[in-house]
Design brief:
The protein contains five helices and eight strands, in the order ββαααβββαβαββ. It is an alpha+beta fold. The chain has an eight-stranded mixed β-sheet with strand order 1-2-3-4-5-6-8-7, with helices on one face. The chain is globular and about 35 Å long.
């Protein structure tokens, strides 16, 4: 089994190394994604986490024809865990992407998501003119991450959450990116 990195840029922040996902991340991603507190704040992580889901996600994330670039928030250079969380940009049409992120509960409130988001906005790896974000309304911490990065509130919506097996009310945000 190889651990080949996908062709995707890496970035250093003050406390993190944002790097492409790799197969060897499966164990730590599974541990964090299996936490119900993480799964219930995303639309796509099932709970309980079935065997093979993380590996399939990694394979898709490393695929040459992927539409979503996923970066690992790696804190190992600062003495933290190798996988603190994930952040992604999912390509949309017309020069737009949707941001997604989660952070392991042990690192909630530390500013790691804000730090990772700031570097991706600055780098603009998809050459976006606009980035969208959507968070569940019972996750005000994630909403603050977007608002602190200059995202503007667009309105309320809803999304199906696999872990909750329910439709959940969301807040939608948008940020124009200067090019």
């Amino acid at each position: 089994m190889t651990d080949t990195l996908v062709q995707q840029p890496s970035y250093n922040t003050q406390r993190l190394f944002l790097r492409p996902i790799r197969k060897s991340d499966a164990g730590l991603i599974s541990v964090h994604a299996a936490d119900v507190r993480v799964a219930q704040m995303t639309a796509v992580i099932p709970h309980p986490l079935p065997p093979g889901v993380t590996e399939a996600f990694i394979e898709t994330s490393m695929s040459a024809d992927r539409t979503e670039d996923v970066w690992v928030m790696d804190g190992s250079e600062q003495g933290h865990a190798e996988v603190i969380g994930l952040i992604s940009l999912n390509r949309m049409d017309r020069g737009q992407s949707e941001i997604g992120y989660w952070v392991a509960p042990a690192f909630w409130g530390t500013g790691f998501a804000s730090e990772a988001l700031a570097v991706l906005i600055e780098a603009n790896p998809h050459n976006n003119s606009r980035i969208f974000g959507q968070v569940f309304q019972d996750n005000p911490g994630s909403a603050r991450v977007l608002m602190n990065a200059g995202f503007e509130y667009l309105g309320d919506a809803e999304a199906f959450c696999i872990a909750r097996n329910a439709v959940v009310q969301t807040w939608t945000y948008s940020k124009a990116i200067e090019q």
